């Protein structure tokens, strides 16, 4: 993982903490259980002969009206064609599971920037081209990812919490060749995630 990416994430998290302390005076102070939220997203990507699909459940907390912090789970299936350097019709299939931390900043209520770190376990199966004489191989590894990007929300109201949908585009800026978001040539595969957020503990007794 690139040192610059780590520094960026540290500064982003530190900025959230500092800015949260300067929130408007009328906002309620301290821990509030109604600031918890859950939800998730669906990942889908097509790029340079690669296909990726997966799901990402989330559980988080709104630090302020414009900053969220949370946990994310991950399951992803990926398939690559022309995996061989020689251009044959070899294939690589991967099943990925793991999790990590994410943070979102909302400069306006319908746009956000997102940073996310993940650690994933990866099971890969190499399938040689027919009649190539190659041998199928199975490998299990793990790798880190640093995802940076942004997105758009629909129906988000930071003052009167309600469920809303979002669409995000993320890129892995880390340098781990074991990341599930890199192809065989270590090129980043853009990640498109469509999902929803649901606020918790929004009953009358809050």
Low-pLDDT sequence parts: 20-26
Any idea what the radius of gyration is? 20 Å
Number of helical segments with 4 or more residues: 1
Ends apart, CA distance between termini: 42 Å
What does this structure look like?
With 206 residues, the chain is mainly beta. It has a single domain (3-15, 32-198), classed as Porin (Beta Barrel). It is built from 1 helix and 8 strands; from the N terminus they run H-E-E-E-E-E-E-E-E. It has one helix at residues 3-20; strands at residues 36-47, 50-64, 67-81, 91-108, 111-127, 137-154, 164-172, 191-199. The termini are far apart.
What labels describe this entry?
8-stranded antiparallel β-barrel; 9% helix; 1 helix; Porin; 206 residues; single chain
Offer a concise description of the structure.
By secondary structure, the protein is mainly beta. Helix content is 9%, strand content 55%. An eight-stranded antiparallel β-barrel has the order 1-2-3-4-5-6-7-8.
What does the secondary structure layout of this molecule look like, with pairings?
Layout lengths: L2 H18 L15 E12 L2 E15 L2 E15 L9 E18 L2 E17 L9 E18 L9 E9 L18 E9 L7
Antiparallel strand pairs: 1-2, 1-8, 2-3, 3-4, 4-5, 5-6, 6-7, 7-8
């Amino acid at each position: 993982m690139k040192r610059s990416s780590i520094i960026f994430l540290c500064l982003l998290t530190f900025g959230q903490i500092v800015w949260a302390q300067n929130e408007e005076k009328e906002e309620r102070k301290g821990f509030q259980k109604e600031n918890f939220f859950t939800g998730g997203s669906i990942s889908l990507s097509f790029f340079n002969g690669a296909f990726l699909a997966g799901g990402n459940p989330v559980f988080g907390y709104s630090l302020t009206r414009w900053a969220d912090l949370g946990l994310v789970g991950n399951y992803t299936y990926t398939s690559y064609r022309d995996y061989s350097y020689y251009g044959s019709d070899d294939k690589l299939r991967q099943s990925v599971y793991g999790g990590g931390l994410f943070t979102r900043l909302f400069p306006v209520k319908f746009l956000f920037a997102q940073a996310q770190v993940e650690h994933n376990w990866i099971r890969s199966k190499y399938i040689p081209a027919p009649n190539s004489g190659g041998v199928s191989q199975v490998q299990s590894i793990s790798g880190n990812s640093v995802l940076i990007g942004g997105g758009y929300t629909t129906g988000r109201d930071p003052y009167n919490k309600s469920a809303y949908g979002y669409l995000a585009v993320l890129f892995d800026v880390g340098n781990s060749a074991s990341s599930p978001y890199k192809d065989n040539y270590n090129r980043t595969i853009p990640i498109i995630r469509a999902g929803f957020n649901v606020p918790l503990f929004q009953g009358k007794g809050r």
